[in-house]
Amino acid sequence: MKNTAKTPLFYCKLMGCYWRKFNRINFLTTTKFERSLNIDFLLGYLRQLLPKRPDLKIIITSATIDPERFAKHFTIRGKVAPIVMVEGKTYPIETLYRPLTEDDENEDSGDLIVGICRAVQELDDIHYGDTLVFLPTERDIRDAQEALEKLNLRHTEVLSLFARQTAAVQNAIFHPKKKRRIILATNVAETSVTVPRILNVIDTGVARISRYSHRSKIQRLPIEPISRASADQRKGRCGRIAEGVCLRLYSEQDYLSRDEFTDPEIKRTSLASVILQMANIGLGEIDQFPFVEPPEHKMIADGYKLLFELKAVERKQYQPKSRGELSRQASAECTSARTANEPNAENASLGFGITKLGREMADLPIDPRFAAVLLYAKQHAVLDRLLPIVCALVVGDIKERPFGKEQAADTAHRLFAHKQSDFLFFNNVFDVLYPLFKKSKNQARKWAKKHYLSAMRVREWLFLVEQLAEQLNYKITMPITPAAVESNTITKFSDGLQGVVAQRAKTVQPVRQVSEQRTTQQAAEKALLNEYQGIHEALLVGFLDHIGTYQPEERDYIGARNKRFHIFPGSFLFKKKANHVVCAEIVESSRVYARQVAKIDLAWLVPLSSHLTKTIESEPMWSKKQGNVMAKQTVLLYGLPLVVGTLVPYAKTEPLAAHDIFVRHGLVENAINTTVAEISQNRGIYDKLLKLEEKSRSRDILIDENAFAELYFAVIPDSVYSAVTLKAWYATADDKTKKRLQFQESDFLLDEDHGVDSSDYPNFIRCRDQRLTLTYEFDPASERDGITVTIPLASLNAFSATDFDYLVPALLAEKVMALIKSLPKRYRRQFVPVAPYVEAILSAIETDTAKQLPLIEQIINVLAEKTTIKLTPDLFDESKLDKHFLMNIAVTDKRGKVVDESRNLAALQAQYHDAASDDFNRTTQHVFAEVFKDAFPKHIAETYKVQDKKITAYPALSQVDSGFKIELFDSAEKARQAHEQGVLAFIKKGLNKEITYIKKQVLNNPKLTLAYQALSGIKGTVRAKEQGIAPQQLSTYQVDRRKLRGEDDAVTCRKVSFIDDMVDAVLLQSYLRELPRDEKAYQAIIAQAKKTLVAEAQSLSKTILAILTHYRQARELMKPQWNYYDDVDAQLNRLVYAGFISRTPIGKLPDIARYVEGVVVRLNKAHLDPQKDAKWQTQIQPFVTQLVDKIGNKKLDKTLPDEVLDFAFLLEEYRLQVFAQGQVKVVGKVSEKRLRSLLNEIC
């Protein structure tokens, strides 16, 4: 046929080129082909063309097609296309079947590689010659090659043939040498390549066949059995030059059971490209197109989905529904979602038309994904960066990894790697290679070979870049000058893209100063980041469904539509574990791998995928700050979260639900900033009634908040859902409507005659001269159920547990009744009916004075008066009380924040004692600054209110270096002890002359001194420095130094300490039982002491002499080997110790004398009757044990709590009653019952 202007003739070697001429050609002739996607489309086009062109002659030739199916396809008006069978001119081929079956005698007999080795050896015996072995993968080829080389076959070379080989290795296949060859090949040798001089074929019967899954959107590469047509095609490779042998590693039955023909590509790949081209050419809907074998409906839908994703098609006459048309859910917890309008299997091609962008994409002779990427790149001025990347992806992997040189190849490739993107590898190579290519193609080829790049694919790649650049009207600029490339290129570009940009920065502007250099560097870094983002945003346009997020638990990535994949080991990001990635393809082989990967930011996807994303608004909530109902919005792309937790107005999607939340949370709870005064007024009335309901512990006074909301619903329309819309509505409302918005107290009450007196539920109580706030809560399930009293941390140590026994008036009667009911049954039934007893108890404790006693003690006293039944505190089981009958203690810091809370005050004080003291000291340290030296303060108050702190402090006189001053303490007990020592020191100063006299003339009694000196063995007796004896105390005796001459320091110190203790004791015991708090009381004590101090000192001397005498006797009588020893030793250590004279509680020294005398009596009796003593010891031991548990090794001094001292001294009286009855006087009533009663109080 002649090629003329009117009738041009096109010879299309590539089917893609054939496709491009469809809308301009009038005559077609096709020769031999395989069932590719383009071929199936061409056959359909020809089928449409035949009725219009009866003169058109079509000849279809192939060795592997189904002729009956084709003949049926081209049947026109009942006329079936003729079939001409032409037998091939081949030599006879013998077919042998050697299936790989498991053999019990040889466990390896089923291995593929073993089967190939055996087949080669068998062919050596029956038909020696070149052998072509078909294997499924490159790895299988490597394993087989290694195994065959180990056989050391004579005059044989083992070669391999697969697509990723270098051109040099492949060319060796077509230039056979004299040696016999065994060629191990993939199915590339089945049709694409004809290997010369083949006499034998070994067919493994399997191949890696590409299959696209429309469900997972993954291009799978499973290894599966080939069809009979493919098997016959392989067989035909050995009968071309002589008789051949085909040895199949599977059975004949297996062969006959296989599909006759291989599935055409149209059933195994995405149809997006075909659909786009058909739409562009105007060939109608794909489901109406006459394919030889029509694709499945789901595959068609998948193609449209991809085109919709790329914005190549859109729905015709599509009007998106407004969100207002969506269904409303009344619940405030509802979730709304907007689903992207994408095609599905049911509407696959119905109503979709090609867009302007789609037509531009169709004009480019590349896959629609790549076309979309380039058009976006052109629009956003990054086409120069995307052209090399896209063309490299179209051509295929340009890298080579020759067998045995893998490490060298990887090292060379890493020179151009980018640490965050595999795609930028192609840019880095292009920036270096393209200038060389333009200068000298031979030089570029050598450079590519040196850096382990496929010269053939590199050449194809660069040509394609130029072709597409021309089609896109883009002029390629030289990235770097050839001169810069020629000098040590690898070093310059070892950092990949960063090195390229740095090189660009150097060539653009010279750096003159350090500051300019830093600015230039920062600008270059910013340019890098912007360029990186621009490049990968363009890539994302084409690969929106090829993204993934790293899952640390599974160590893989989860991508679109919940598919999971790993990064391919050959990727530069294989070990980087980037959080989010995009990839060029996801392929399933041994695992699902992502290839050509780059790190991305999910935020880049949001504007690119707005037509595909689904938005979910969840967790709607009222925001006082925003004055609106806000919801957390999640943006999903194919199920993968792009944005999570962004707050958006909820009314845009759910106005009715937003109105409901606005009313319930904004208005009812008054959590809104608004000028509409009625809102806060209504809530104020409601809160007032709510507090009364909480206090009364009932739920039958007030309407609930749902009913409160209904009051608003009746007035405010549904269109109001925010502070702004409320203000707008209120401005236009009439006076009648505004009046309806003003709710009255009666609107909130269920029963106006509720009978609750608010005075019975005070908001404050006064305790220890401090005003404490009370809060009420009625929620039995809550830990705060009942009444909570708030105590500042600084005041915590001031209170005791009994301070809050009486709760509030309204709950006192119920608590008393509950306590009586907690008694054991044998006691409880004595108080039936209980109401009269409760009334009697309430009458007895109406006064504040009565409330100073613990509540249980008050109940015991009243019940004893009414019934003569004497109860003990341990009979009341407070654990049976409901928790609201026990005050909840909330401790707050200086900012009013609750630090801790509990119903156990003692536990809080134990935990926060030091912190409370520190806080108190910081608050009160500068309140009193005046120092007193001579005159006693005019008045020292019992309590002091720290201004603006709401803290009650307890003043006391304390001695300081410069004199005396008033200090504040956080508890009355601490203040009492400090005040006692301060007053004692002040009085000693006022009585200096009198004290000096009694020290010399009265207390310096030789008998007393000798008795005390004999006590050097007292545990706790220490030297002066250890005891803290001041130098001035020793100087008192300087006038009597001659009397002390010859004494060592220890004796002198003990003597000085002893006499000082005597002075303190006589003052405390005789004059300071009531501590003075003003100058008048102080002067009265001074006046009395000047008259009677000598007499009192003499009396005390006798008492101390008696104690020490009995103590010495007791120590002399004690025998360490006797059973009583430990008990008596501990008793004496508690009673008589270093400093006991001044530290023993006031008025108790005479009692100490009796107790020590009783010890002497006991020891004398014990020596006469040890068994009786042991019996008496058993009788008192439980109480002794309880005392030791309570105080440990502490002495019986006045620092112990009063209740503990009461128990300890009563125990001593009990000892006298048991061990010295009738010989030493017992004071007061003593019994085990009384001991147990006191024990219960301290426990």
Explain the layout of strands and helices:
Elements: H1 15-20, H2 37-49, H3 67-73, E1 93-97, H4 112-126, E2 131-134, H5 138-150, E3 156-161, H6 167-173, E4 180-185, E5 200-203, E6 206-208, E7 211-213, E8 218-220, E9 223-225, H7 228-235, E10 244-248, H8 252-257, H9 272-281, H10 297-309, E11 313-315, E12 336-338, E13 352-354, H11 356-362, H12 368-379, H13 383-395, H14 406-414, H15 424-439, H16 441-450, H17 455-471, H18 482-486, H19 489-492, H20 497-508, H21 514-542, E14 547-551, E15 556-559, E16 564-567, E17 580-588, E18 592-599, H22 605-608, E19 614-623, E20 628-637, E21 640-649, H23 655-667, H24 677-696, H25 705-713, H26 723-732, H27 735-740, H28 745-748, E22 764-767, E23 770-777, E24 786-792, H29 809-821, H30 825-828, H31 835-844, H32 855-867, E25 888-892, E26 898-902, H33 905-924, E27 931-932, E28 944-946, E29 951-960, E30 963-969, H34 972-990, H35 992-1001, H36 1006-1013, H37 1024-1027, H38 1031-1035, H39 1041-1044, H40 1049-1071, H41 1079-1117, H42 1125-1135, H43 1140-1143, H44 1149-1168, H45 1170-1191, H46 1202-1219, H47 1232-1242
Parallel strand pairs: 1-10, 2-4, 2-5, 3-4, 5-10, 8-17, 16-18, 24-25
Antiparallel strand pairs: 6-9, 7-8, 11-13, 12-19, 14-15, 14-17, 15-16, 17-18, 19-20, 20-21, 22-23, 23-24, 25-26, 27-30, 28-29, 29-30
